[in-house]
Amino acid sequence: MQKFPMTAEGLARLTEELRELKVEERPAVIRAIAEARAHGDLSENAEYHAARERQSFIEGRIAELESVIPSVEVIDSTSFSGNKVLFGAHVTVVDEETEQEKTYRIVGQYEADMKNGSISNSSPLAKALIGKKVGDSVEVPAPGGAKVYEIAGVRFV
């Protein structure tokens, strides 16, 4: 069975999402389908079709979470220290071309969220960073050509 590395916070978020889907979302969509059915002709009932589509999404997501959660391997990065990039690290990098600085946290694929600065450990950037130390430069393949970043800092929180 494949194991998925994840932080404790990531597992808690997935577990809460599963609970919400089962306890709140699923019953709500079942009620919405029943109400839409009561309006008559289902072939031209947009509310019914939207509710069925939502139900399909919810059931698919529940199935996905129920298969992923038992396969999670929680990695406690708070016990790590040093200047070497490991899973769970907050890594500050500087784009050597633009001098722009960004900080990312390396997490598992099911908790990655670029908007919040979390990148998957299987992403090209994370793969290039893992195992390197502060001061090292890494080259990352990108659609517009390779990007070079210098590791400016590593924190474990």
UniProtKB/TrEMBL annotation:
GO terms for molecular function: translation elongation factor activity. Pfam families: GreA_GreB, GreA_GreB_N. Coiled coil: none annotated. Keywords: DNA-binding, Elongation factor, Protein biosynthesis, Transcription, Transcription regulation. Residues 5-74 form the Transcription elongation factor GreA/GreB N-terminal domain. Residues 83-154 form the Transcription elongation factor GreA/GreB C-terminal domain. The keyword DNA-binding applies. Belongs to the GreA/GreB family. NCBIfam families: greA, PRK00226.1-2, PRK00226.1-4, PRK00226.1-5. Necessary for efficient RNA polymerase transcription elongation past template-encoded arresting sites. The arresting sites in DNA have the property of trapping a certain fraction of elongating RNA polymerases that pass through, resulting in locked ternary complexes. Cleavage of the nascent transcript by cleavage factors such as GreA or GreB allows the resumption of elongation from the new 3'terminus. GreA releases sequences of 2 to 3 nucleotides. This is Transcription elongation factor GreA. The lineage of its organism: Bacteria, Pseudomonadati, Pseudomonadota, Alphaproteobacteria, Acetobacterales.
